[in-house]
Amino acid sequence: MRQIFLDTETTGLSPESGDRMVEVGCIEMDNRRLTGRHLHFYLNPERRNGEGAVAVHGLTDDFLADKPLFAHIVDELLEFVSGAEIVIHNAGFDVGFLNEELRRCGREKFSTHVAGITDTLLMAREMFPGKANSLDALCKRLEVDNSNRTLHGALIDANLLAEVYIRLTRGQDSLVMDMADDGGGRGAGDLGGPADLSVFALPVPAATESELTDHERVLGEIDKASGGKTIWRAQAQIAVA
Q1: pLDDT averaged over the chain?
Q2: Are 50 and 29 in contact, with CB atoms under 8 Å apart?
Q3: Which architecture, in CATH terms, is 2-170?
Q4: In this predicted structure, what is the pLDDT of residue 199?
Q5: Residues in contact with 128: Cβ distance below 8 Å, sequence separation at least 6, in sequence order
Q6: Which residue numbers are catalytic?
Q7: What are 3-28's pLDDT values in tens digits?
Q8: Phi, psi dihedral angles at 171 (to 5 degrees)
Q9: What SS3 state is found at 69?
């Protein structure tokens, strides 16, 4: 499955009020492995940055003055993300800006160009309700090194998001893959299929006499409390017969 981790930086918080994108960064992952492909642009927003925005990302008006317009990079961006699942932290914010930039170029909304959009902020809120779930907070909680993040940057944040996503979604399949890893980066998926767990013999210890006695006592109490309506003993008698 091809995924693109995407982040943007902007002149402010409201595309409806005329704020524009000043940076976009994309990182590609295929089958939960980074491919090394990425796309990154600084953009001339054709308007002044808000002071608060510059404090966040450090991209000054002078720095952005000679950068390309969004209209000049839109084709390359859409080609890169086409058909992929897009993973964004707080997707509503970034997609709102992308949609407004695409509208200015006479293009359809961002969602029409991609396979789907996943919001890791919503994922984190479900997994960690009531806790801080900013990208920095998730990096700290999931032990992702973000020591190089002195300012927000679209490409840096997309890289961090990819690491955070892998740890947020790490499940039983990943555990099996890790067990089968041969130290050279190969997992079960590279060895011809999932690990064959049938080769493992699980010990099944027999119950002791005291455990059997306690078990019968508890069953008797449950049978008495239910007025003799327990069905497992009747099923056991049928099975014996």
Answers
A1: 86
A2: no
A3: 2-Layer Sandwich (3.30)
A4: 55
A5: 141
A6: 152
A7: 999 999 999 999 999 999 999 999 99
A8: -125, -160
A9: coil
Strand partners, 41: 24
Q: Hey, is 36 helix, strand or coil? A: strand
DSSP structure string for 175-233: HHHHHH--SSS--GGGTTSS--GGG-----PPPPHHHHHHHHHHHHHHHHHTTS--SHH
Structure token digits, residue 209: 């006499």
Encode pLDDT of 200-226 as tens digits: 565 667 778 887 887 787 777 777 766
Residue 208 token pair: 């002791």
- Block residue for tokens 């959009």: 117
pTM above 0.85, yes or no: no
Alpha helices (H) along 37-153: 51-57, 61-64, 70-81, 91-104, 120-127, 135-141
Rounded Cα distance between 179 and 66, Å, is: 51
Q: What does the CA dihedral 72, 88, 157, 141 come to, rounded to 10 degrees?
A: 180
Check if the beta carbon of residue 135 is closer than 8 Å to that of residue 129.
Answer: no
Q: CATH 3.30.420.10 spans which residues of the chain?
A: 2-170
Beta carbons of 124 and 168 less than 8 angstroms apart: yes
> Measured between alpha carbons, how far is residue 160 from residues 26, 91, 164 in Å?
11, 15, 6
